[in-house]
Fold this protein.
Amino acid sequence: MNNTTAPKNVRTLIAPDKFKGSLTAGEVADALAAGLRSATGAGTVHCEILPLADGGDGSVDAAVASGFTRRSYTVAGPTGQPVQASIAYDGVTAVVEVANTCGLGLLPGGRPEAMAASSRGFGEAVLFALSLNPATVVLALGGSASTDGGMGMLTALGFTFRDADGRQLNGSGSSLARIHSVDRAAFPELAGTNLIIASDVYNPLLGPQGAPAVFGPQKGAGPAEILALEQGLTHFVTQLTEAGFPGAGFPGARESGPATLARHEGSGSAGGIGFACLLLGAQQVSGADFFLDLLDFNSRKESCDVVITGEGSLDEQTLAGKLPAAVARRSGARPIIAVAGRSLLPRERWSDLALTGVYTLAEYTDQDSSKDPELSAALLRQIGRDIGASLL
């Protein structure tokens, strides 16, 4: 695309995901845009910024960056401590995420609590979103600290779990095996609300590919804890089935039973919160594609000559359908450039995503930028300048 014979204007759409542990999607886009605008050459680079998310952490930020309003609310963090969480709302749709309510990043001192962590804060945020009377609530699942099957979330939404002595249980991985009875008060707020699970995790709740086995180690669970969580979740499903859930007892419930929902793709997402959401009648969709639609990617790309996307790591999971792959698939014939912290994809695999170029922070420094926001931003500005120079 190099052409210095005449001034030219190049219109870019900068549509990245976050660089996890370093920069939000908005910060990535801003740094790249600053570099692109400073590029020298025979012309000008125009930048349109569209920070993206795929249903994981950063989903609320991406929605706010696209025009949603941020609403803050105090909820119980993963170990019960107060957390100032936020949702995004545009008057019709509310976006609620696990990561900023009961996520791994909110654990005090960063210490994993595989058995004690709860999803209650996510349920409290959903309850707050429902108080705004939205038509749709988007449940962004990703980054959870808990493996409680959504028990904590359900307690916030009116479920009551009691042990054999009649004592009320708080939701947590360690509480699952102690459930003796389940009850639920009427909850009409859900009757007219469309619940959408935005997630690209397709693991079931139980078994070798289930939440404890696959994601438990990421949350600090050793072999004994993984076994206890598997047994606890199995007991959880049994107790819900014996209590007659789901069914006609509450609005929005699915007709299929808990055992069927536990085998459903995605029920194991976010430590089993996906299962609880399915129990409430939520519909699961691809997180990447849903957010591209929600943030109006298709119309935004039409006025642009080049699309720039990216994430922290380009690898085989990217090819399997993560956000950059969805962006590439929707970008049509226009050039697509990927920017990442690192790339594990050999050059011959770039064509799988129709990429015309890949830039990585690792190529620009010998330092580890993955936990250094200032270095990452500086490198992205430099990469932006280099991309801009190649386009002019």
Observations:
- The first strand starts at residue 8 and ends at 14.
- Confidence is low (pLDDT under 50) at residues 247-253.
- The chain has two domains: 8-52+302-391, 59-288.
- The radius of gyration is 22 Å.
